Amino acid sequence: MKRVVVARQDNLGDVLLAGPAVRAIAAQAEHVTLLAGPYGAAAGELLPGVDEVQVFRAPWIDPEPPPLTRSSVDVLAEQLTGFEAAFVLTSFHQSPLPLALVLRLAGVPWIGAICDDYPGSLLNLRHRVPGDPPEALRMLSLAQAAGCALPPGDDGRLAIRGPLPDVSALTGIGDYVVVHPTASVPARSPSPVHSGRIVDALVQAGHRVVVTGAKPEGTTAGVDLSGGTSLLELAAVLAGAEAVVAPNTGPAHLAAAVGTPVVSLFAPVVPAARWAPFGVPAALLGDQHAPCRGSRVRTCPVPGHPCLDGIDPAEVVAAVAELVKRPSRRATA
After folding, report:
1. 230, CA 20 to 30 Å: which among 39, 101, 106, 321?
2. Coiled coil: which residue ranges (predicted)?
3. pLDDT tens digit string along 198-235?
């Protein structure tokens, strides 16, 4: 394969989880273009194996979808003209077929995707994945089904390009734990007040805390980097941490990509088996049998948000203490 386009059009974490599949495809291709959405494009710039990133806000993927217009489809089809092959990577609840149709209109001769629906002539490779594997392995299995294997020495975990910048001026000197309390949707985040309790508990246990994302309420503890880093700087901050405490969100996967252990505050609105931090030591906290389980809701339907706000801050402290004892992988590609 010479020119290949790989599509993953949702969020930052989803793009990072596509990394092993992208590297397997890149090992067999001369040039790989990542087609990303606006929320995941910055992560695409960090992926080993990606030669360029193109952006299209897909009405069939985006959580706040724009109208589908003939002109936007024509522009996308023009963008996709000239590729020899395409891999359409999607989550289990997304369809690859709208993009496959545009790829066919663009004249792409070979298209592969994971797809349960009948694709007719839209796909050359219709791949199915049994069970509930981690999302990174699910996407990698599509590349492998097409004959694309990871290169020798590639351990199949998440990775980003190095080198990382020196962020000691941001974090200060000495060991620290990162707390990133926010996620892209409210249902996956502890309340700001409860996040503050977690920060306070970690400080009282003797940890120096660096806060990224949005600052929790009710605490003045910790180094506040909320909204103050680029994505590459955030990666460096996470790489320098002893552990990262975060909900199911992109920075948790970014922490995994730089080899840092993660305490995952995981709301069960999506399956933890698919979306928990991949390839690093991790502790999964949160009621995985809460009434919101599997609902994919964006706002918690249960008063008090018990699946996350019910986590005792002492559990977080204990999980951090356990993780920092274990060896972790601190490397970038």
Report:
1. 321
2. none
3. 999 999 999 999 999 888 887 777 899 988 899 999 99
Range of weakest confidence among 18-22, 29-33, 189-193, 255-259: 189-193
| Prediction pTM value | 0.95
Tokens of 6: 């790989």
What six digits make up the tokens of 241?
Answer: 């941490």
Q: Give the H or E element holding residue 17.
A: helix 12-17
Within 13 Å of residue 215, how many CA atoms lie on the same side as its CB? 12
- DSSP secondary structure code for residue 131 in this structure: S
Residue written as tokens 């009434």? 291
The full length of the chain comes to: 333
CA distance 147 to 105: 25
Beta bridge partners of 125: 112
pLDDT at 329 over 60: no
Residue 206, Cβ density class (10 Å: 0-12 exposed, 13-18 middle, ≥19 buried): exposed
